[in-house]
Amino acid sequence: MLRAKFLNYIENERRYSTHTLIAYANDLQQFHDYLLQAYNLENSVNAEPEMIRSWIVSLINTPLQTRTVNRKISTLKSYYRFLQKEKLISINPVKTISGPKTAQKLPEFIEKDKLAKLLDELLIGTDYHSVRNKLIIELFYSTGMRLSELVQLKFSDFDFSRSTVKINGKRNKQRLVPVTTTVLQLLTTYSDIQKKETENEYHVFVFSTKKGKQMHPRVVYGIVKNTLEMITSLEKRSPHILRHSFATHLLNNGADLNSIKELLGHANLATTQIYTHNSFEKLKNQYKQAHPRA
Fold first, then answer.
1. In which region does residue 213 sit, left (phi positive, over 0), alpha (psi from -120 to 50) or beta (all else)?
2. Are 221 and 238 within 8 A, CB to CB?
3. What is the 3-state secondary structure (H, E, C) of 206-249?
């Protein structure tokens, strides 16, 4: 079956994540169902551009977000490129098709002073959960890593002599990111408490269950959400807010955009450039406050 062969290709050769695989599989099934229902066409190899445009129009007329529609179009483009590669089609019917424009949403972030106050005043005590929770917040904000990257962290990823952490990012792309002395000291304290708490001398993953398995992302998300409620009224209080804050604060303090791109693990600079809009908004506000004729 072509769809199964394509999904196997993007999983094993392109190294797409499980989440992406599921999304692609659902998109292709939905497209297949539409072709069957609207055109009585069972084989997507024979789909023509107008059929694909018709499907896109049907998606736009639903409550789906524009970003979701564009992702489905991207799925089809990848699928038909694969069919070309396999010499099953000569022309990609999606090549000239473009999706609806997506309104650019500026990433939300937390003000630097609020985060600094939170990290300074966050009580850690000596109990396992307090130390673990503060370490989680410190790591997110001081490295800009993603939630999926944090739960994969191993103690062996930290290099104390160089003050760095190796982060395993999207598509298994690794990057080295500096870590603060505060993080390294907190990690040492946490490791000692963890061994006593779990009666286990050796843990592979930094954030793990008592049985040594990776902590579930939902648990980490809940910790961050509950902690950030102390300082912000933003509707979304997630690990990604800390990632946005990390990037925005670096840029506002003069960091080079290319350096921020590498720290975040972005594939291209265009993704990182969205943070310049936040900095420009800040500049405009300062101008309005400071200029006598603004």
1. beta
2. yes
3. CCECCCCCECCHHHHHHHHHHHHCCCCCCCCCCHHHHHHHHHHH
pLDDT at 51: 94
Would you state the structure tokens that stand for residue 240, as one six-digit string? 């990604």
The answer to whether residues 159 and 123 touch, using CB atoms and an 8 Å cutoff, is no
State the pLDDT at residue 120. 83
CB 71 within 8 A of CB 62: no
Question: Can you give the pTM of this predicted structure?
Answer: 0.63
Alpha carbon distance 294, 285 (integer Å): 10
What gap in Å lies between CA 213 and CA 208, rounded to an integer? 5
Q: Quick one: tokens of 228?
A: 């950030």
For residue 284, give the DSSP letter.
H
Instruction: Convert the pLDDT of each residue in 104-140 to its tens digit.
Output: 666 788 989 889 888 887 766 778 888 999 999 999 9
Task: Provide the annotated active-site residues.
Answer: 146, 170, 240, 243, 266, 275
